[in-house]
């Protein structure tokens, strides 16, 4: 049962998984059901699910998120990960070429070379915000 929950609702590698972004599953309360299955497994003496990344477990168990502790490796969205890498290595003149993709991801500040760290940090926060509804539903 837990393997099915892991396959259907989580993504990531062997270092930990995060909930998949699925507004449909969220609206149908599938994440809540997955959380209930995990809780019942633990209450009945089963092994606890060992699939979440540390930040994800912390958020589910405490309801608070330490956004500063999120690393680039925690972002499992391939498009955002690639953009973050490109911004990180970009030279000043290359930032202009990334402008459309940066703004398409929701960044509204000046996309300048001097603000590379802010852009990267903002992309991590965006990715987490996209995952929050799933986490909130799962935590219930």
TrEMBL record:
Organism name? Dissostichus mawsoni (Antarctic cod)
In Swiss-Prot or TrEMBL terms, this protein is called Uncharacterized protein
